[in-house]
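Hey,
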Amino acid sequence: MKLVPLTGAAILAGLVSLSVPNAANADAISDFYKNKRMAMLIGLSSGGAYDRYGRLVARHLGRFIPGNPTIVPRNMTGGGSLVMTNFLYNVAPQDGTQIGAPNRGVPAEPLVAGQNSLAKYDPLKMHWIGSLTRETSLGVAWHTSGIKSYQDLYTKQFVTGGTGGATDSVTVGYILANLLGMKFKIIVGYPGGNEINLAMQRGEVMGRATNSWSAIKSGDYTRVQEGKLILLYQMGAKKNNEGILKDVPFALDFAKDERQRKIMFLKFAINDFGYPYALGPGVPKARVAALSAAFKQMAKDPKLLAEAQKAHMDIDPIFSEELHDLLKQMYASSPDIVAGLRTASMPNGKVEMAKGAKKKKKKKKAEE
């Protein structure tokens, strides 16, 4: 077949024609979001790290979305973010105006809980747009608890506070008890980390099975320095040797064999999700792409970085592609390891509810 050389005019016309759909698409995104009020649905209570990061994103993300919409934060608590995530997936408009900020354990919850899961969503069908930081999670004890190191957990009962029954704040305690023989007793039903901290200081609980390092640095670091908050162990995909964390034992090293280590890794690797943000499964691809791109721009914005530094909030972003890849790897785990994780994540006795959770439940029943 004979090739006919293109003239300069023909090449220019071709380039213009190729650029039109992209320009039209950008205009459509801008037209849609202009003057819009978006919602940032934060799945945990106000005052905690999820709330602080969610509100930080809500303040800055709109500047990078075409059309510059306003983003209004709203706390939607319950089930350790399951209520919010179920709402985002099944009820919220699937138009790109609703962003969910769930507990980082939410993406793995159906994998962990299996048939017992209260999740009404498929994490692999949701659109994860990013997280401003990866996270190291810590087991902590209050100084009056009598717990001085992780070794005490093998011989003394450790009463900890948690949110929803299938969240990390609860299931990590079950895993360490069921796999390793540590003596956890978990009180379930606190709205968020802020309430667990207050319960710990009031003596209702002795500590927390999980507490984010970024939350400690931005809010409780002075208590660590004063010896009031004791760091027992750390969890993540790999050990964090930042500052004082280099002396905090790595929980994966507690595993008695390789199978236990793989089970624990499957659970603890979710810390890389940090403080994740997601869209519902039905949001148009073009809007997902626009919000993901906006998140990447925002994560390196000097104004956001300055505000985060002032508030002692870590910025070590992870973006959409990596989050989706991590989820796919987790859900491709061998059946034996998944089954082991599910078994280890189950309570080995009666689940005790926090006092506030009991009262709230009775009040709700009376209103109905």
